[in-house]
Amino acid sequence: MAKNSPGQFFNQVKAEASKVVWPTRQETVTTAIFVGIMMVILSLFFLGVDSVFGAVVRWLLTLA
C-alpha cells in the first residue's frame, strides 16, 4: 500500500466527508420519536419478563 503525505491524507478525508448525506431535521425527529417509543415498549416487556422470573424464583424458594 502506497504511503500518502499528510496533505494528501487530509484531502482524501475531506473528499470522503463531502460524500456524507446528513439526515434532515424531520428524519432526525422521526427517528428519535421511534427510538423513544421502542425504548418504552422494550422496557415494559423486560419489566414483565423480570417480574415473572422473580415470581417463579420466589415460588421455587418457598418449596425448599
Automatic annotation (TrEMBL):
One Gene Ontology cellular component: plasma membrane
PROSITE patterns according to UniProt: SECE_SEC61G
Transmembrane segments: 32-61
GO biological process terms on file: intracellular protein transmembrane transport; protein secretion; protein targeting; protein transport by the Sec complex
Gene3D superfamilies registered for this protein in UniProt: Preprotein translocase secy subunit
Compartments, as annotated in UniProt: Cell membrane; Membrane
Membrane topology value: Single-pass membrane protein
Claim: Cell membrane is one of the keywords in the record: yes
Molecular function in Gene Ontology: protein transmembrane transporter activity
UniProt entry keywords in alphabetical sequence: Cell membrane, Membrane, Protein transport, Translocation, Transmembrane, Transmembrane helix, Transport
Complex formation: Component of the Sec protein translocase complex. Heterotrimer consisting of SecY, SecE and SecG subunits. The heterotrimers can form oligomers, although 1 heterotrimer is thought to be able to translocate proteins. Interacts with the ribosome. Interacts with SecDF, and other proteins may be involved. Interacts with SecA.
Function of the protein: Essential subunit of the Sec protein translocation channel SecYEG. Clamps together the 2 halves of SecY. May contact the channel plug during translocation.
HAMAP family: SecE
Family: Belongs to the SecE/SEC61-gamma family.
Stated name of the protein: Protein translocase subunit SecE
Species name: Allopontixanthobacter sediminis
